[in-house]
Specification:
Jelly Rolls; 726 residues; alpha+beta; 19 helices; 5-stranded antiparallel sheet; elongated; 7-stranded beta/alpha barrel; single chain; 5 domains
Length: 726
């Protein structure tokens, strides 16, 4: 049986390769390069500069064996979205924000493998590793990207005309910390989207589409079904490739055969729940100020896409971000507000930001939830039930208890899949704290994914094997630096969504329709709807239970990097505890106004700096310069409130009779909840009662007495002679 299965897989794999050979051309080796640092606005001047063609190196050549100021092609074992055997090289250039221009002129062939290309659309699929990418088609800027928006399918021609030429230029800037690379460059011919909109069933005869269907079948079919598929696929008449109409009739017979065996139904019984997402770090390789601009672009992009794709549902976390939008872009905030009410924009997270969860105190966790949920309730009339922490570097074992107390029943991350030593065993499980509090927890697909049918099907098959569930959630959208879903992603979804829109009964036998598509049903949903459906399953109680921390075996250096951030965080957490305590006592004893607004403001500054790329110390230096300003602002305002509250309390204390006429009262206050003993540190004033003090003789000048006049042992601090210890 194993041998038969291998033969069947090979037959199907050969058909996939043949179909892709009719629709794809690898163009990575066709680029010319120019390393001049010319801005995009001066693209016309590029023709006067010398261009060269990168020379490929053998697989055994070291990656650093080329000059730092030139581009080369080196071997690559793998690249996103393509099988390893299809990648033979990648173009690289020096790190340090170096500019590389690439150029190639594409000549539209009449056919590929004799298959006619006329009237098909042409896209250029690119994948890069660059801080900035700008793509020009015939001299016009058509798309931009960066390290995180690092893939694109550029529409070069809606309908190609054989013999036509297209000139493409790409301006790439390498990361400051790493060399740049162009890893993928492929021309893809496919059915034009406009043709698909007018005649959806023609999508079935798109050869690239059919190749992906065969790959999807490989993921889901049982061995006997796969052998049946291989037998049917082996009957495709490849000799008819040169006549598109006749070859389509051969494919038509293939579709009828697989439908007779009900093979599409085996795939269509599965379901994929789609949700738009755009992970946005509040700071990382960019400063906080840039985050606000990225958020605006991301949210506006989603809103514009929802006009053309009303089925799109989008989710986003981080109340701190919504507050900034509310204050600086009230027009945009109002649109988001209406979409939340309509159900096409989902609020997730519940915490003020997506914080580091191992370094902060229990009080900080509570405040993250308090301020986050309160903002959602005040501004949108609802809280969220989902803790959304896809990128945080591990989670303390007590977190489920905090979440339940904040009205949160679900927890979503993907970070544990980054473990470099121990693979986390459960994609879906109950996470239980020591007190018995439980939250249903989901390890989602990686953030920053697009919509690639074969990749999604592979993920779905693995999900079902681990959980027994035939439906899964797929988060889609460019992330880390914002971005969200793209138009191309949504158009691709519509191409594959046909079977979800088809009627329940088959049409006439002489018509091949979208019900023949081998793909799970597609439906946009909210995260809460998906998680609640799982929670309501009878089998949910049998899910595995995890009773421990969720430790990330990665990013280990973040607990020692930038120790100043750890110090300021802990100091401010302690300071704010005393600030609130003294302010509350002052209000209760003297009826002074409680400084609620000021305390809330500085708490939010602390919570913001607990973001998972600030407090761990994993951002660029400029981020910490800004963070330190916020820490100092918290300390300054906190100490002012502390001092004002204490002076108010002091003024109401009835002091005992002083044991000596020149004695000065000292009040020692224990801010903790238990009795304790310890050394008191007292800063000595330079003057008191108009008497100048000789600090050098302060230990002879000052004595500490109790209320009965008894001397309490004291001494000057060795490290600070202005401080008296007793």
């Amino acid at each position: 049986m194993e041998q038969n299965s291998k033969i069947a897989n090979n037959l199907v794999g050969e058909a996939i390769a043949q179909l892709l050979a009719c629709t794809e051309i690898d163009t990575l080796g066709n680029w010319q390069s120019c390393d001049t640092n010319l801005p995009a606005s001066q693209i016309a001047q590029l023709y006067s500069f010398p261009w060269n063609t990168p020379a490929p190196q053998s697989n055994s050549s070291p990656s650093n064996s080329f000059p730092s100021n030139s581009s080369q092609s080196i071997s690559s074992e793998e690249s996103p979205n393509l099988p390893p055997e299809k990648i033979t090289e990648k173009i690289t250039w020096a790190k340090g924000s170096q500019v590389l221009w690439l150029r190639q002129k594409l000549l539209i062939p009449t056919a590929l493998q004799t298959y006619p290309l006329a009237d098909l659309s042409l896209r250029l699929a690119l994948t890069w590793w660059a801080a900035s990418a700008q793509i020009f088609v015939d001299g016009v800027l058509v798309q931009e990207g960066d390290l995180f928006d690092a893939q694109a399918r550029i529409l070069l021609r809606e309908k190609v005309l054989p013999g036509d030429t297209v000139e493409v230029m790409v301006r790439l800037v390498s990361p400051s910390h790493d060399q740049g690379a162009l890893m993928r460059s492929r021309c893809i011919y496919e059915l034009p989207y406009s043709t698909f909109e007018n005649s959806p069933d023609l999508q079935l005869f798109d050869l690239h589409f059919m190749a992906d269907q065969l790959a999807v079948y490989q993921q889901y079919l049982a061995e006997d079904q796969l052998q049946q598929l291989a037998e049917i696929t082996d009957k495709i008449d490849w000799d008819l490739l040169g006549d598109r109409e006749q070859f389509n009739l051969s494919l038509d017979r293939w579709y009828r055969a697989v439908s007779t065996l009900d093979l599409p139904r085996a795939i269509q019984n599965h379901k994929i729940h789609l949700l738009g997402h755009a992970h946005l770090d509040m700071a990382w390789l960019w400063e906080v100020a840039e985050t606000w601009q990225v958020a605006q672009r991301t949210f506006e992009s989603v809103i514009h896409l929802q006009e053309d794709f009303p089925e799109l549902i989008f989710c986003h976390s981080t109340p701190a971000l919504y507050q900034w939008i509310e204050q600086h872009r009230p027009d945009l905030f109002q649109i988001i507000h209406s979409k939340v009410q309509q159900g096409t924009w989902e609020l997730v997270g519940g915490m003020w930001i997506e914080p580091e969860m191992n370094l902060i105190s229990g009080e900080s966790i509570a405040r993250q939830l308090l301020y986050g949920q309160q903002y959602f309730l005040d501004k949108f009339g609802q809280t969220t039930q989902i803790a959304w922490l896809p990128d945080t570097f591990g989670f303390c074992a007590s977190l489920p208890q905090f979440l339940k107390l904040a009205g949160i029943n679900y927890f979503v991350t993907q970070k544990l899949d980054w473990n470099d030593t121990t693979k986390f065993p459960h994609p879906l499980f109950w996470w239980e704290s020591a007190d018995g509090s439980r939250v249903l927890s989901l390890m989602s697909n990686p953030i920053g994914e697009g919509f690639e049918p074969v990749k999604i099907a592979t993920y779905g098959a693995a999900w079902q094997a681990k959980t027994g569930l035939d439906s899964h959630l797929w988060l889609m959208g460019v992330g880390d630096h914002g971005g969200g879903p793209s138009r191309d992603m949504l158009e691709t979804i519509r191409r594959w969504q046909l079977n979800s829109q088809a009627p329940n009964s088959f049409p006439k036998e002489d018509i091949i329709t979208s019900q023949n598509i081998a793909f799970p049903q597609l439906q946009f949903t909210t995260a809460i709807d998906y998680l609640e459906k799982i929670n309501n399953l009878e089998t949910s109680s049998k899910l595995p239970v995890w009773r421990d921390e969720l430790y990330l075996e990665f990013h280990r250096g973040c607990y020692t990097t930038h120790g100043d951030q750890k110090y300021f965080n802990r100091y401010c957490e302690g300071l704010l505890y005393e600030v609130e305590l003294l302010a509350a006592i002052a209000t209760l004893t003297t009826n002074q106004n409680y400084p609620q607004a000021a305390i809330t403001d500085i708490w939010k500054k602390v919570l913001f700096n607990q973001f998972h790329d600030i407090l761990p110390g994993t951002s660029i230096a400029e981020v910490f310069a800004t963070a330190n300003q916020d820490w100092q602002a918290v300390i300054k305002i906190g100490k002012e409130i502390w001092e004002a509250s204490w002076q108010t309390i002091f003024s109401k204390i009835n002091l005992p009779i002083l044991p000596q006429k020149d004695a000065q009262p000292i009040i020692v206050f224990n801010s903790l909840n238990w009795q304790r003993k310890g050394v008191v540190s007292l800063a000595l004033p330079d003057r008191i009662l108009d008497v100048s003090l000789d600090i050098q003789k302060a230990d002879q000048t000052w004595q500490i007495l109790d209320s009965n006049g008894q001397i309490i042992p004291s001494q000057l601090s060795i490290s600070d002679p202005n401080t008296l210890l007793f």
